[in-house]
Design a protein that fits this description.
Blueprint (H helix, E strand, L loop, with lengths): L1 E4 L2 E4 L3 H12 L4 E4 L29 H17 L4 H4 L18 H17 L3 E4 L2 E9 L2 E9 L5 E5 L2 E4 L6 H5 L3 E2 L5 H4 L16 E2 L2 E5 L12 H6 L13 E3 L6 E3 L26 H4 L1 E3 L13 E4 L5 E2 L9 H24 L13 E3 L1 H4 L16 E2 L12 H4 L10 E5 L3 E3 L9 E3 L4 E4 L11 E3 L11 H4 L2 H21 L3 H6 L1 H13 L13
Parallel strand pairs: 1-7, 2-3, 2-8, 3-4, 8-23
Antiparallel strand pairs: 5-6, 6-7, 9-18, 10-16, 11-15, 11-17, 12-13, 14-15, 19-22, 20-21
Pfam families: FAD_oxidored (PF12831)
Protein name: FAD-dependent oxidoreductase
InterPro entries: FAD/NAD-bd_sf (IPR036188), NadB (IPR005288)
Length: about 525
């Protein structure tokens, strides 16, 4: 097998992986980054999910490099897209004018910007990208991971990559079982965590829904697809807490669990500049067309876009029939096939049976936009993963550390070893144990360095949803800017330890060493404390 080596190995090229690689490269280190899909960027690109961000994102509460990514996306539109002069001059340009975020955009634009951020290091020979490769094994010596074996997705050829520091930026924490790193999954018990929303007994196979998203537009003509596999099953499917069929406009409101009716109006003639994407005031999901719209045609000169483009990541595509962690490859493929069948079924239902406001049924003009998501099959390139395996960490973040109901005016716990900040409601989708939404207000929170440190393994660092959170707190630490912050700090920590001949655990445990590292983070534009703001 061919062998590769570098200072730092980043396994997984999602948002956390890209941020980790960039941080290490900025600090003079050589990096190998792997990715199993054709696009880097994870949630933002291959999974086709516009960024879920907090209300203050345009002012503070993200790292400098994440802001550079956001600014780069906006500038890419200004440089390359036929925007109207009014939209071109919009400082906080929201290309899709979606209600979920102040920056809704097409996945390929984020991909182009991230690739551009990495290109100088690829050209300079300090970054090697192994793509499409996924990890299949690891060589471990006691508490140290020596190397990771990777398999090419298409050919099956294997290579070995080694480094003094290995960062697990996979979507499901794939390196944890391969390296023997202790981890948890699913729902912890209240006896273990003390969390108000936890069950009395642990439920390791109770995990959040996975979703396979897709993009659509609406134009003249009949674009109805063939009836999908298992459509009759999904058409009749009715979760006990849903208030009706899964395929319908009625579903639970995440925050109140009351059954609400959502609307769907393709191509409303709304003004993009008047869209107020602020989760404090409105979750924005009342109209599913504008909720995650990624291209608002009125942002562009007349004729440039026949239609808006809408990203479908709605309650009805959540697959919560069975977990996808710690199962065989064959079973994993079967469950993702079932999730894809559900997504196709939702689309077919929209085209043929969905009730319209004029009393008719179906929107025959809807088209799958696989060209937007980079696939021939029409759906997103990768499944949207909400919950991963999580390390048993030096510090575990629990609900009572940041719950608005528990903490109130005191705000979230201040960690002595804070290495970043984030904010989002604790947002748990229906899960494989039959649970409804858990949606809890939270306070603007910090990310403790101890949550990035396995209790035992010395040189493996998590860079995403695999940090030391619980099933519950994962619900607010899993979002785009927080994942980027986690990955960026993992890359900086590895570079810092190599430069100063330290270990991550020593940096976290010693106040003076920790202070030096936090000073370095400040210089890199990583915020570690919030100003005085209130949660929602």
């Amino acid at each position: 097998m061919k062998e590769y080596s570098a200072d730092i190995l980043v396994v997984g090229g999602g948002l956390g992986g890209v941020a980790a690689a960039l941080a290490a490269l900025r600090n003079g280190r050589s990096v190998i980054m792997t990715e199993e899909f054709d696009w880097i960027g994870g949630q933002l690109t291959s999974q086709a999910v516009p960024p879920d961000e907090h209300s203050w994102v345009e002012q503070f509460g993200v790292t400098r490099s994440y802001r550079a990514l956001r600014n780069g996306i906006r500038q890419y539109y200004r440089d390359h897209y036929p925007l109207t002069e009014r939209s071109r001059g919009w400082v906080d340009l929201n290309p899709g004018a979606g209600h979920v975020s102040r920056l809704c955009h097409e996945p390929r634009v984020a991909l182009a910007v991230m690739e551009a951020m990495l290109l100088p290091y690829r050209g300079g020979g300090r970054l090697t990208v192994l793509q499409p490769y996924k990890p299949v094994g690891a060589d471990v010596d006691g508490d140290v991971v020596r190397s990771v074996t990777l398999r090419h997705r298409d050919t099956g050829d294997k290579v070995v990559a080694s480094a003094p520091y290995i960062i697990d930026a996979t979507e499901l924490g794939d390196l944890l079982p391969m390296t023997g790193t202790e981890y948890v999954k699913g729902f912890e018990s209240q006896a273990e965590t003390g969390e108000p929303s936890a069950p009395s007994e642990a439920q390791p196979d109770n995990q959040q829904a996975v979703s396979i998203c897709f993009a659509v537009d609406h134009v003249d003509g009949n674009h109805v697809i063939d009836k999908p596999d298992n459509y009759d099953f999904w058409r009749a499917y009715q979760p006990h807490f849903w208030g009706g069929p899964l395929l319908g406009w009625n579903s639970p409101h995440p925050r109140t669990l009351e059954i609400v009716t959502r609307s769907f109006t393709p191509n409303p003639d709304d003004d993009p500049l008047l869209v107020d994407a602020d989760q404090r005031r409105n979750p924005g999901d009342g109209n599913l067309w504008t909720f995650r719209r990624i291209a608002a045609r009125r942002n562009f000169v007349p004729g440039a876009y026949e239609s808006d483009i809408c990203l479908v990541n709605w309650p009805m595509i959540d697959y919560f029939e069975a977990p996808i962690v710690d199962i065989s490859e064959d079973e994993y493929a079967k469950r993702l096939k079932a999730a894809a069948d559900l997504s196709y079924s939702v689309f077919y239902w929209l085209q043929t049976e969905a009730p319209r406001t004029d009393g008719g049924f179906g929107f025959k003009g809807l088209r799958l936009r696989g060209d937007v998501t980079g696939t021939e099959h029409g759906l997103a390139m990768a499944p949207y993963i909400r919950e991963s395996r999580r390390i048993r960490a030096v510090t575990t973040v629990v609900e009572q550390d940041l719950s608005l109901a528990v903490r109130g005016e005191k705000g979230a716990v201040n960690y002595r070893d804070s290495i970043g900040v984030g904010m989002y409601r604790i947002d748990l989708h229906p899960s494989t144990g039959g649970d409804n939404y858990i949606d809890v207000g939270s306070c603007p929170f910090e990310i403790p360095l101890g949550a990035l440190l396995p209790q035992r393994v010395k040189n493996l660092l998590p860079a995403g949803k695999n940090i030391g959170t619980t099933h519950i707190t994962n619900g607010c630490y899993r979002l785009h800017p927080v994942e980027w912050n986690i990955g960026e700090v993992a890359g900086l920590l590895a570079a810092h330890c190599l430069e100063n001949r330290l270990t991550p655990h020593a940096v976290q445990a010693d106040d003076a060493l920790l202070g030096d590292f936090q000073t370095r983070l400040y210089g890199e534009g990583v915020e570690t404390r919030w100003p005085d703001v209130r949660g929602y």
